[in-house]
Amino acid sequence: MPFTHRPRLRPGILLSAPVLRGPATVHLIRDPADGSAFEVGPKEYFLISRLDGARNLEEIGEEYARAFGRRLGEANWRQLLGLLGTRGLLVGAPPRQAPAAPPAPPRTGSLYRGSWRLVADADALTARMHRALRPLLRRRVVLPLLAACLAMEAVLAAQLGTLVRDTGWLFHQPVALLAVFTLLWLSTGGHELAHGVAARHHGGTVSEIGLRWRLPAAIMYCRVDDYRFLGSRLHQLAVGAAGAFANLLFLLPFALWWAALETGDPTRRVLSGLLLLGSVQALVNLLPLPPLDGYTMLSHVLGVSHYAPESGRYLRLRLRDGRAAAGYPRRARVLYTAYGIGSSVLVLLIAAAAVTAALVLLTP
Q1: Which stretches within 174-265 are classed as H helix?
Q2: pLDDT tens digits for 161-179?
Q3: pLDDT tens digits for 53-69?
Q4: Are residues 31 and 88 in contact, defined by beta-carbon separation less than 8 angstroms?
Q5: Contacts of 226 (CB under 8 A, 6+ apart)
Q6: What is d(CA 43, CA 338) in angstroms, rounded to the nearest whole number?
Q7: Could you give the angle at the alpha carbon of 218 between the alpha carbons of 215 and 222, nearest 5°?
Q8: Which of 66, 76, 276, 328 suits 199 as a labelling partner, its CA being 20 to 30 A distant?
Q9: 107 closest CA partner among 224, 218, 226, 243
Q10: What is the torsion angle, in degrees rounded to the nearest 10, for the CA atoms of residue 324, residue 326, residue 329 and residue 330?
Q11: Which residues contact 45 (CB under 8 A, 6 or more apart)?
Q12: pTM
């Protein structure tokens, strides 16, 4: 193999920033053409990320030797380029001959539990929505709206006692309660679509929009495939937070209506319940517990993949074999231990708050 060869990755191949998974640091590589993805270590990533067609193998090999203190031989290059070529990731390599997968049925599962794909081309739909909403996604529009949402939450927090009393009253008004829960259900649809629009805005793609149910509950979902490959962690956080932001925006006009009514007005009491329950719906989604958005956001901030299961795996290993657990790098030990302890405490606090809220709201 001539070391003057200048291989180049096929345009569009996605490479992620480093992420921690178990004891190892890995990078993800994804081919958007067929959705296939795989993990590589830092050394392999170092080489793959430099296959730009401008540098030859000798130049890349010298950079690698300076970074890792070891030169690559022809066999190493053949193995790496052979892997990439087999997967069809290099310019000039034959396209990957993956077996054609049968089209996924629009509906899966049973009457009790399943999902239903609602849109034939979710990415095209969110692209059209993004074009229509793009003027509203500019920073000079988003920041004032965010400030308005935060101000609304501050006012509601100051009136928490009144909101709790009115919500308790609402739970004894079946018709009004049904109307409030219908509005909150519609808000979940906006929540999911907001994730898709935000993903499109920051260069992501949306693979599926549908309805998922586990009776008696049924909610919409929006699947963003390439979270890990967005341009920056700030963009990843924006996509993750878009759903809760949409929930709060949904409440803003109702908050203005609520503020204009007199205390004791029955409509104001219904709106109090909507605002309290809607705020809980939005803010709970920001908690760092799977499968909530806050968990995804925390994973992106820390650069950790499969945070909860890997944390559980590390803590179980630590109980069984402390020496093996000590083989994890220090950063992994700290992060996994912190999440195990923090998430356990958070679950206990949520359970206590849920029991207290149920007693307050359901007591006549």
Answers
A1: 174-201, 233-260
A2: 999 999 999 999 999 999 9
A3: 999 999 999 999 999 99
A4: yes
A5: 14, 30, 32, 204, 205
A6: 28
A7: 140
A8: 276
A9: 218
A10: 160
A11: 15, 18, 27
A12: 0.89
